Recover the amino acids of this structure.
């Protein structure tokens, strides 16, 4: 394409090194759609005759079909998706096709293509995330009355419900949903018309192409436009935080699934066995999910590092911007293919979950708060209950089974009304502060999360409605 300036052919190794076809061919449909917007704009502004524009659009659509049918085999010598499609166009309609690239550079072209491609991809990611959150909310409702230990430092702390646990993870994914919307918004700008870096001497109409491709706005500065990849970083940051959330949820379930904890049951169809130990049922799916974090966080660090030393404006380093991003999108797709169905089938063995409550010590905070309501300052209540804990351990007596006489021997302020409060279930149910562990609070949380999710869904649907045909 640039043969005018060069007297030697490109070295074969250099060609392999500089090509990006392996990465960008997947964006062929988006690239064609961007070219159609460009060509319509050229006709609209009079830079191209109406019949020429029609010929180009018709041929571009045919090329799109050839690609779908698999009859168009791209050539690596043509370096990337853009050159392959343009040269096919010229092959099909000669001098008319050769007019397509006026007023455009691959720098604003690739930018446009990726943004078109990403908008569609992000809508797919949204659907996965929405499904995941919905599954968690269903589980939260199902298990709102199932009592399990809540941990700090992985030590039993206070009783909660499994519903509260699922809803906690749902909250993390709700924040991810917000970040995903923000990333979508960052992608949703039209860069077409910025040219190589400085715009064009031709009377291009950027607003026209923006509208034709259904973008919300145009980028503001042509140099900035072709030079930055902040919108990729926004996606990668969303994905990295999301990956951490997936990993933490997986880790929780892996721990609760161990023989030592043993109160989470995973479906056989999501576990694997051992080639040597016949008794094994391993949580490999959860482990693989936990492991994905490395790749995703790696992609974020990769691009952050790549970007930091790039002088304005476009530099070829930027071609590799897509590698980690596409890898990340693939990872997210894999996560969504297994995590929601796995979660939907998780069962809880409440009796086993409550086995660790045998010493009754998980109720110690409840006793301290009981004393506070009887006028004891919290610090002394804490100390008194601390003594009671020691007494229970020394006398090998479960705290929830002490008689009134035993209680009063250690803490004189205790009355008979304490005794019925001392069960893990009542403890969980009485934590009725906003966002607390009680079933009432968990149900409130679920209802609000559903509303918020529906509002996010409406935002996403509005974006979806604006996607142009062919995407
Ligand atoms: N394949 C290139 C990329 O992905 C297209 C832009 C090439 N621009 C250039 N000035 N060499 O970034």
């Amino acid at each position: 394409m640039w043969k005018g300036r060069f007297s030697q052919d490109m070295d074969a190794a250099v060609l392999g090194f500089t090509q990006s076809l392996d990465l960008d061919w997947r964006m062929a449909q988006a690239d064609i759609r961007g070219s159609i917007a460009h060509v319509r704009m050229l006709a609209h502004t009079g830079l191209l005759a109406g019949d020429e524009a029609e010929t180009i659009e018709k041929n571009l659509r045919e090329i799109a079909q050839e690609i779908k049918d698999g009859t168009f085999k791209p050539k690596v010598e043509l370096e990337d998706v853009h050159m392959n499609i343009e040269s096919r166009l010229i092959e099909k309609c000669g001098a008319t096709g050769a007019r397509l690239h006026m007023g455009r550079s691959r720098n604003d072209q690739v930018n446009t293509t990726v943004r078109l491609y990403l908008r569609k991809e992000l809508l797919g990611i949204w659907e996965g995330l929405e499904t995941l959150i919905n599954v968690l909310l269903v589980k939260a409702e199902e298990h709102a009355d199932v009592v399990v230990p809540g941990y700090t430092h992985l030590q039993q702390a206070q009783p909660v419900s499994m519903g509260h646990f699922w809803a906690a993870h749902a909250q993390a994914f709700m924040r991810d949903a917000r970040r995903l919307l923000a990333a979508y918004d960052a992608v949703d700008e039209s860069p077409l018309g910025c040219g190589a870096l400085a715009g064009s001497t031709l009377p291009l109409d950027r607003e026209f192409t923006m509208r034709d491709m259904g973008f919300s706005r145009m980028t503001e500065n042509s140099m900035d436009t072709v030079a930055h990849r902040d919108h990729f970083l926004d996606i990668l940051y969303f994905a990295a935080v999301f990956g951490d959330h997936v990993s933490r949820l997986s880790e929780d379930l892996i721990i609760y699934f161990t023989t030592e904890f043993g109160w989470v049951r995973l479906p056989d169809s999501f576990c694997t066995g051992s080639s040597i130990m016949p008794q094994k049922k391993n949580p490999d799916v959860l482990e693989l999910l936990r492991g994905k974090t490395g790749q995703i966080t790696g992609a974020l660090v990769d691009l952050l590092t790549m970007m930091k030393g790039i002088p304005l404006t476009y530099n070829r380093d930027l071609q590799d911007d897509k590698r980690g991003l596409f890898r990340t999108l693939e990872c997210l797709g894999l996560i969504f293919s297994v995590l929601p169905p796995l979660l939907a089938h998780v069962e809880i063995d409440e009796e086993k979950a409550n086995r660790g409550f045998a010493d009754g010590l998980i109720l110690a905070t409840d006793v301290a708060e009981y004393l506070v309501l009887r006028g004891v300052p919290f610090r002394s209540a804490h100390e008194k209950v601390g003594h009671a804990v020691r007494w229970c351990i020394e006398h090998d007596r479960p705290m929830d089974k002490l008689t009134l006489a035993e209680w009063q021997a250690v803490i004189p302020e205790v009355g008979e009304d304490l005794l019925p409060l001392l069960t893990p279930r009542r403890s969980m149910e009485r934590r009725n502060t906003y966002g607390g562990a009680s079933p009432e609070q968990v149900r409130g949380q679920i209802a609000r999360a559903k509303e918020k999710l529906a509002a996010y869904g409406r935002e996403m649907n509005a974006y979806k409605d604006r996607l142009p045909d062919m995407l």
In short: The mean pLDDT is 96. The chain is about 60% helix and 5% strand. The chain has three domains: 12-102, 107-152+162-355+443-465, 361-421.
